[in-house]
What does this fold into?
Amino acid sequence: MVLHVQYHDNKYDYVSQAILEELINAQRIKRFYRPSEERWIVPDLDPVRGIGGYYRGPERRQARYSA
It folds into this structure.
């Protein structure tokens, strides 16, 4: 999926989700358009999902019942 972004210099571009993640982490974009909400998202103000981090702990997604 390609997303519409606006940089801090007010220029616009279309980027992939992978590039969007990099731009957000590098704080290089002012906002991006989230089609599912039909609105612009400002990374500094609105919730943005990240790729997560490394989890240290027991696996909690195992099947509940063993066969």
